[in-house]
From TrEMBL:
<feature type="domain" description="Peptidase M12A">
    <location>
        <begin position="151"/>
        <end position="347"/>
    </location>
</feature>
<feature type="binding site">
    <location>
        <position position="253"/>
    </location>
    <ligand>
        <name>Zn(2+)</name>
    </ligand>
</feature>
<keyword id="KW-0479">Metal-binding</keyword>
<keyword id="KW-0325">Glycoprotein</keyword>
<keyword id="KW-0732">Signal</keyword>
<feature type="binding site">
    <location>
        <position position="243"/>
    </location>
    <ligand>
        <name>Zn(2+)</name>
    </ligand>
</feature>
<dbReference type="GO" id="GO:0004222">
    <property type="term" value="F:metalloendopeptidase activity"/>
</dbReference>
<dbReference type="GO" id="GO:0006508">
    <property type="term" value="P:proteolysis"/>
</dbReference>
<dbReference type="InterPro" id="IPR035914">
    <property type="entry name" value="Sperma_CUB_dom_sf"/>
</dbReference>
<feature type="domain" description="CUB">
    <location>
        <begin position="392"/>
        <end position="506"/>
    </location>
</feature>
<dbReference type="Pfam" id="PF00431">
    <property type="entry name" value="CUB"/>
</dbReference>
<dbReference type="InterPro" id="IPR001506">
    <property type="entry name" value="Peptidase_M12A"/>
</dbReference>
<feature type="active site">
    <location>
        <position position="244"/>
    </location>
</feature>
<keyword id="KW-0245">EGF-like domain</keyword>
<dbReference type="InterPro" id="IPR024079">
    <property type="entry name" value="MetalloPept_cat_dom_sf"/>
</dbReference>
<dbReference type="InterPro" id="IPR006026">
    <property type="entry name" value="Peptidase_Metallo"/>
</dbReference>
<dbReference type="InterPro" id="IPR034035">
    <property type="entry name" value="Astacin-like_dom"/>
</dbReference>
């Protein structure tokens, strides 16, 4: 290309911002939405975007006042680095204004219910001054108010997939890496649920079309006809794709659960103003939890710095600080992520329920074994999970005297990439396990741990535990609520020293 032509192209790009040109014709930012989500008619699309703007405007005005940066100008307040987890790339600016909570494309009905409920709570609070406590109450009280709302979203039967296998196609735009990782993500869903998927060239019913859009995003639940799941650049990771498929199966984000106040607190001063509406909670009418508790390790959870205006500042704080680096993980579905789908889609799939231990349950897709909480293994979850790429782990008694465990290769040469160990530490009946880290402690350091040692001390061993990484050795001892403590070592991206811990009963 001659220098003059290059200059002209540069001028066009600069003049038009991020608008893409093909054969001289501009492609509007929402082009890929219209192309890959045909169930949204032009009217639907206009209604949805209008409602989404209203949701943003109402939440924004309510909290920051009308004199602050207007939502209409919000594109200038957006940064390319906006994302909901460090382990999940953000969508690109042209598309992000059409999405809710960073990676959800709402239907008009969903947007309508969210706005209606937001306004209802505001009316109730209209005498209150605009302040964060008021908005916080707005957010938290919405779940109570909405319990009278009979319309539902995820809980809607219409949003469930009815015909199996769920058919899907690959759009030509996908990279080879994306196709590989989508296959792995689908395999994980199939290996842990009764759900089946089938790649087809000519779909015969409602289906998913994976395509390479401007980021990772999806609609919630089955929409009807062809519905896209965007796996854009940087999204080609199994856990991230499992997350997006989770949305397509009907999962909302974990921190949007009506009971999120149990476990997290928001830091509104650190949230980019125009994304305050992305921290609203759903109502009990919109969400069916099947009695499954809030899980910090859900692959559907925001990370600590979701929508932050400063990457050194957190927007989501965990009430128990030991979970701070657990939230936002995108390695894979948690035990409870899988179980909520199994409860929704796979009830009574097996003739016989196996006697599974430690919170496991009969695998609804195979019926010849149990699905075990992380750290447990064996056909009926009565032993520790087999190690990966290392000789480590085990079921160890906690005695009166201290005993020690370490990560593989500790401290030299240290742990390697893609290893896993699981220990079940068991105190005598009526006693508890006390564990403390000693000597050197060093893990690859990230806001959400990618390499870590996890301690499950809760009475509910199905919950994800505290994940520790970075360079500061935790100084506080951990004591289990019951006689068992589960310790898991996991490395996914790096090599480092690892940990050493000692334990006994108390
Ligand atoms: Zn999401």
């Amino acid at each position: 290309m001659k220098a003059y032509a290059k200059f002209c192209l540069l001028v066009v790009v600069l003049a038009c911002g991020l608008t893409v040109f093909v054969d001289g014709a501009p492609i509007p930012p929402d082009h890929e939405l219209r192309q890959h989500f045909p169930s949204l008619s032009n009217n639907d699309f206009a209604e949805m975007t209008n409602l989404l703007d209203q949701i943003k405007q109402v939440a924004h005005d309510r909290f920051y006042g009308k004199d602050s940066v207007a939502v209409a100008q919000h594109s200038t307040d957006m940064r390319p680095s906006v994302s909901i987890s460090i382990a999940q790339p953000g969508v690109q600016v042209p598309i992000s204004r059409y999405l809710f909570e960073g990676d959800i494309l709402l239907s008009p009905l969903q947007a309508n219910v969210i706005l209606r409920n937001l306004l209802r709570v505001l009316r109730k609070n209209r005498r209150r001054r605009s302040s964060w406590p008021a908005l916080k109450q707005l957010i938290t009280s919405s779940s109570m108010l909405l319990s009278r709302d009979k319309r539902s979203l995820y809980s809607s039967e219409k949003a469930r997939w009815k015909n199996f296998p769920i058919q899907y196609t690959f759009h030509d735009s996908l990279s080879v890496d994306a196709v590989t990782e989508i296959g792995l993500a689908i395999d994980y869903w199939m290996n842990h649920t009764c759900l089946t998927f089938e790649k087809v060239s000519e779909p015969e019913r409602d289906y998913i079309e994976f395509f390479r859009g401007q980021g990772c995003y999806s609609m919630i639940g089955r929409v009807g006809g062809r519905q896209g799941v965007s796996i854009g650049d940087g999204c080609e990771r199994t856990g991230t794709i499992e997350h997006e498929i989770g949305h397509a199966l009907g999962l909302w984000h974990e921190q949007a659960r009506p009971d999120a106040d149990c476990c997290i607190v928001l830091e509104p001063d650190n949230i980019i103003n125009n994304f305050i509406s992305d921290f609203l909670q759903r109502s009990w009418e919109e969400v069916l939890t099947y009695g499954i508790p809030y899980d910090m390790g859900s692959v559907m959870h925001y990370g600590s710095t979701a929508f932050t205006n400063d990457w050194s500042k957190k927007t989501v704080l965990t009430r128990d600080a030991r979970y701070q680096r657990t939230i936002g993980q995108r390695e894979r579905l948690s035990f409870y992520d899988v179980q909520v789908i199994n409860k929704a889609y796979c009830p009574k799939h097996c003739d016989i329920d196996l006697p599974c231990f430690n919170g496991g349950y009969t695998h609804p897709g195979k019926c010849d074994g149990c699905i075990c909480p992380d750290g447990f293994g064996g056909i009926v979850c009565d032993r520790h999970e087999q190690p990966k790429n290392a000789q480590c782990g085990g079921m160890l008694p906690a005695l009166e005297q201290w005993a020690e465990i370490t990560s593989p290769g500790y401290p030299h040469p240290g742990y390697n990439i893609d290893q896993k160990c699981s220990w079940i530490l068991r105190a005598p009946q009526g006693k508890r396990v006390e564990l403390e880290f000693i000597d050197r402690f060093q893990f690859f350091c990230t806001t959400t741990c990618l390499d870590f040692v996890e301690v499950k001390a809760s009475a509910d061993v199905k919950l994800t535990g505290f994940r520790y990484c970075c360079f500061e050795r935790p100084t506080e001892a951990v004591v289990s609520e019951l006689a068992d403590m589960i310790v898991i070592f996991r490395s996914t991206v790096s090599r480092d020293v690892g940990f050493k811990a000692r334990f006994r009963y108390s």
